[in-house]
Design a protein that fits this description.
about 300 residues, MetI-like fold, mainly alpha, about 75% helix, 2 domains
């Protein structure tokens, strides 16, 4: 009887310790989230306070200038939209196609495992390395020294392509194998299964990876600094062969200027960049939610 009572007390004590330990971990996690949100809110508030006085129609329609009251973001904004659009055009079909091949069609050979390992390693390469690679491969070799929009988009494609491939592979792996078996049982071939069953189910996860990839592409300045090297432009790119600059590079230039008024202009450009980023993410999230609701209809 005493042994049972002692054992019950020990179990009760152990249970209480686990409960308090879980509460401490939950409190720590909540505190970490609140600290992150508070820091982000403070940063956003500081940017809005500095940038909103300079954010007007003239700022959006003027070209860059070394005079603060005349400076605008029309040229960098146009270059950013060109780069993001072409990067998405190159990255999405190549990245999704690569993931489909590796997961649905390629055999589990040593070569394919080596390819997957290299793709995972490329996701951690610093962005400036891709800038140097793009300068040598695209600017100097492919376009004979022309620092154009296509060279910048191809460089950003190399940068974000591993993210899209890895995210698409994980989304495809998450599709239950029973879905494929049911399609095969109804007489579908492999491509019909991939097109009609796997892709619709994996699309929400793929879109999450594409959102992350394009968000990184729109905010990178190091590769574009190497590819473009333009900080003040008075034109909008009109073709894939045009010279260009982008908003992150323009913001970096204004922040480093000696005139303190340029810091407010840089904050206004940050607000515009965030609006572009959130708008692009909003479209991608809408597409993702559309495919998520499809199986329930």
């Amino acid at each position: 009887m005493n042994d049972i009572s002692t054992r019950t007390k020990i179990q009760g004590s152990s249970h209480s310790v686990r409960i308090w330990r879980d509460r401490v971990f939950v409190a720590g996690f909540v505190m970490a989230v609140l600290i992150g949100i508070a820091g982000l809110f403070a940063l956003m508030l500081d940017v809005l306070i500095d940038g909103l006085p300079f954010l007007d129609f003239q700022f959006l329609t003027n070209y860059s200038s070394w005079e603060p009251h005349k400076a605008g973001i029309l040229g960098p904004l146009g270059g950013t939209l060109w780069i993001v659009g072409l990067t998405a055009l190159f990255t999405i079909p190549i990245g999704v196609g690569t993931a489909i091949y590796l997961e649905e069609f390629a055999s589990k050979s040593r070569l394919n495992r080596l390819i997957e390992l290299n793709i995972a390693n490329l996701a951690g390469v610093p962005s400036v390395i891709y800038g140097l690679l793009g300068l040598a491969m695209f600017v100097q070799f492919l376009f004979n020294g022309s620092r154009n929009v296509t060279a910048g988009a191809l460089t950003m494609t190399l940068l974000v392509l591993p993210i899209v491939v890895i995210a698409s592979q994980e989304a495809i792996r998450a599709v239950p194998s029973s879905y494929r078996d049911a399609a095969y049982a109804m007489g579908a071939n492999r491509w019909q299964v991939v097109k009609s069953v796997v892709l619709p189910q994996a699309m929400p996860g793929m879109m999450s990876g594409i959102i992350l990839a394009l968000s990184r592409a729109i905010g990178e300045s190091a590769p574009i600094l190497i590819i473009s090297s333009l900080v003040v432009v008075a034109f909008i790119p009109t073709s894939p062969d045009s010279a260009f600059t982008v908003l992150p590079l323009q913001i970096f230039t204004w922040i480093g200027h000696q005139n303190p008024e340029f810091r407010g202009i840089a904050a206004a450009a940050i607000v515009v960049l965030l609006i572009v980023l959130l708008s692009m993410n909003g479209v991608a999230i809408w597409i993702r939610n559309k495919y998520q609701s499809r199986p329930e209809q």
